[in-house]
Every structure is written in structure tokens, then in C-alpha cells.
Automatic annotation (TrEMBL):
Component of the dihydroxyacetone kinase complex, which is responsible for the phosphoenolpyruvate (PEP)-dependent phosphorylation of dihydroxyacetone. DhaM serves as the phosphoryl donor. Is phosphorylated by phosphoenolpyruvate in an EI- and HPr-dependent reaction, and a phosphorelay system on histidine residues finally leads to phosphoryl transfer to DhaL and dihydroxyacetone. General (non sugar-specific) component of the phosphoenolpyruvate-dependent sugar phosphotransferase system (sugar PTS). This major carbohydrate active-transport system catalyzes the phosphorylation of incoming sugar substrates concomitantly with their translocation across the cell membrane. The phosphoryl group from phosphoenolpyruvate (PEP) is transferred to the phosphoryl carrier protein HPr by enzyme I. Phospho-HPr then transfers it to the PTS EIIA domain. Keywords: Transferase. It comes from Cryobacterium sinapicolor. Residues 145-228 form the HPr domain. This is Phosphocarrier protein HPr.
Length: 228
């Protein structure tokens, strides 16, 4: 796993300073080590976007592993594209604009960067907010499935920080794992289940080495994530 100095960085480009700042605050609850820079509002603090803020954001977020830009509205994308034109070729090659919703995509991208995902992985995580990669298809060639059903005991269930912790752990295993049929390594897929306290989570894997992943994820759920 890449450390914070080598991980992919993120820039959140919004017409509103409060939205960009707030998204950093939200995503940092789930990805505390990831480089995230808000680029919201105009240079004077008004509603709009700032070319200089975007350029500065890319510079601050870039640790060498790449930077993903997420935008709220069409003109924010235009500002981002203009900023890319002014980058050196070497820097431009590792900067991507993700075609994804700002908030949902930003949170998913942050968690993917936190667990050491490369540039392509972080972009895919952001784009999962528009419905990609939320399901794991069945494969008849895989070994017999290992399944464990756990009743959630923590108040928040699989939402926000607990969901991020669950996804981070799932991402440390090579085995493919599902929770109630959804990809256990996809934050948005897990959160879309709406699992709250008292509900059941079925953790499954058909991979040959999936038993350890299922056991670890089941233990995490049963622990209540340290919540009182």
C-alpha cells in the first residue's frame, strides 16, 4: 500500500467554496491520509470557479502518483480542462478529470486513494458513483462459495466511516468478496445497501483464498467498529 506521500491526490472543483471545503471535511473522515485540496469559488470568494485555484490545487495534491480532478458543473470542467493545458507535459500525463458526481465520486475516490489505489483505480472508484462496478458477477468456474452472515451491532451500520473501514479491509485481500451481493471493495456499492443496526450482512467469496477475507470482514462487523 502506498503511503500518503506516494498516493494519488484529489482536487475538488466547485462553484462554491463551502461545497469544496465541506467535501474535503467529509471525505477526510474516511480517508484521513489522502491528499485532498478544495478548489471552490472564485479568487475573490464568490460563486464561480478559479483557474488559479485549480492550478494551485493540482500542485498541492501531486505527490508523483497522479491527481484526480472532480467537478460539480459544466463550467468547472472547462476550468479544469484549461488548467490542464497549462501544465508541463510530465505533470499533465498524470492528471485526470473524472466523469463522476462530485460528492459521491469524491468520497469513493478518496477511499480508493487511501488504500493505495493507482491513478486508474481511483478514477474507476469515482466513476462507480454512476453505477459502474457495483455488482460482482457469478463465475461457474470458481470454487464453492464461503459465506458468513453477521448481524450489525453498531448504531451507524455500514454507513460513512464504518463503511469506509469495511471497504479498506476488503481492499487488502486479493480475493473477491461480496456483501449482500455487492462488491465489498466498493464504498458506494456497500453504502447503497442501506444496512443499519440489527440488519444482516451476508459476506461471501468463491475465491480459493476467500475464507480468510470473509472471516476478517465478519469479525470487523461483529466488533461494532469500536462504537459504543
Amino acid at each position: 500500500m502506498a503511503g500518503p506521500e506516494q498516493s494519488v491526490g484529489l482536487v475538488f472543483i466547485s462553484h462554491s467554496t463551502k461545497i469544496a471545503d465541506g467535501l474535503v471535511d467529509l471525505a477526510r473522515q474516511m480517508a484521513p491520509q489522502t491528499r485532498m485540496v478544495p478548489a471552490g469559488g472564485t479568487d475573490g470568494g464568490g460563486i464561480g470557479t478559479s483557474f488559479t485555484k485549480v492550478l494551485s490545487g493540482i500542485e498541492q495534491a501531486d505527490a508523483g502518483a497522479g491527481v484526480v480532478l472532480l467537478c460539480d458543473l459544466g463550467s468547472a470542467i472547462l476550468t479544469a480542462e484549461t488548467a490542464l493545458d497549462f501544465l508541463d507535459d510530465a505533470v499533465r500525463a498524470r492528471v485526470r478529470i473524472a466523469d463522476a458526481p462530485l460528492i459521491e465520486g469524491g468520497v469513493a475516490a478518496a477511499v480508493a486513494a487511501e488504500v493505495g489505489g493507482d491513478l486508474d483505480s481511483v478514477v474507476r472508484a469515482a466513476q462507480s458513483a454512476i453505477g459502474a462496478e457495483s455488482e460482482v458477477a457469478a463465475d461457474p468456474e470458481l470454487p464453492q462459495q464461503v459465506t458468513r452472515t453477521v448481524t450489525l451491532v453498531n448504531t451507524a451500520g455500514l454507513h460513512a466511516r464504518p463503511a469506509a473501514d469495511f471497504v479498506k479491509l476488503a481492499s487488502t485481500f486479493e480475493a473477491r468478496v461480496t456483501v449482500n451481493g455487492k462488491d465489498a471493495s466498493s464504498l458506494l456499492a456497500v453504502m447503497s445497501l442501506g444496512l443499519t443496526r440489527g440488519m444482516s450482512a451476508e459476506i461471501s467469496s468463491s475465491d480459493a483464498n476467500g475464507a480468510a477475507a470473509v472471516a476478517a470482514l465478519g469479525d470487523l462487523l461483529e466488533s461494532g467498529f469500536g462504537e459504543e
